[in-house]
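User: Teach me something about this protein's shape.
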Amino acid sequence: MHFDAKTYINSPKWSNSRPGLERITELCERLGNPQNELNFIHVAGTNGKGSVCAYINQILIEAGNITGLFTSPFIFEFNERIKINNESISDEDLLQATLKVKEQADKMVDHPTEFELMTAVAFVYFAQKKTDIVVLEVGMGGRLDSTNVVSTVLASVITRIGLDHTEYLGNTLSDITAEKEGIIKPDVPVVRYTDIDQVSIGKTNTYTRRFKYKDKNYETKLLATYQPHNAALAIEAAKLLNIDEDKIKLGIANAQWPVRFDIVRRSPYVIIDGAHNVQGVKALIDSLLDIFPNKKFTFIMSVLADKDYETMVELIKPYAKQIFTSSPDNPRALDATDLANFIGEAKVFESAQEVLSASNKDDVIVCFGSLYVAGKLYNQFINLI
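Assistant: First, the predicted structure itself:
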């Protein structure tokens, strides 16, 4: 009988989010605690987690480490959630690691969730491949997130914190901060976004952004105005590991993180960004106005129904030439027609070709609102001649 690892992990039977460490702790114990064979840099926060992970990951690779990377959600393919030195786990390795996890998970009275299964698969794979360091992104929150089963942590990193997942994490910034900072371990150094200063954002073009941090010059391919601060978090984490400055600069310069203020076409410009909450949309607008001053933008918005989309719409309206709506491929999606009706004067997105045909060569098209639709829109726009 054929076994499909992705179908098993993504089974609706265990797709609901249920914060808590009991299931992942039992599962890891049944597997022989593979996470204890690994060293981690653990990254939590509301916005910027993925970018910070990408920077740290690339710095570690430049420094000669066999580096694991665990992130979510995936943008283009399921396997990209688990990488070693920027190579996604192969289907065969995913199959073997999942079979090992399944053997133990199916014996548990309280079966692990999808994210807990994926976390365990990553631990098994990274331990088998004897990675030097794993950059581990928290799924949601921190204190009760399944990634918080790890104990061999070299550094804890806390990115920007905002109001998101309030139904799980609390309704105030202090409540959410406490949940995020729940990953902090005794005697483990911590790098916090709130402690990052001395960042001077320099000149940018549509290819690279230059910035200065603590009187040292850096450049990055990640263009958004907030990326120098994310890079500074990665720089501080790397310094805790005594990585040479030249390797740090290389890592910052070579880091890539798709669909985060990602210019995927020119003439007209097409930008795909993962902004999916109010804080993210504010940062997106800041970046747009910095690189494209005095412009109006064509927005393609897709959003989950449990987000504060009302405020997100109000934020983009003053800068909108026109607005299209799309539906993310997610059970929590806000229907594109419902969103268009809420906005008024908006059209439901039909195709990339339609939007390009209605645009001038100097227009700027901005797709945002959900990572669950970013990969689809990326492929539509990049594959058109």
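Now, about its shape. The longest helix spans residues 91-105. The chain has a mean pLDDT of 93. If you'd like, I can walk through any region in more detail.
User: That's plenty for now, thanks!
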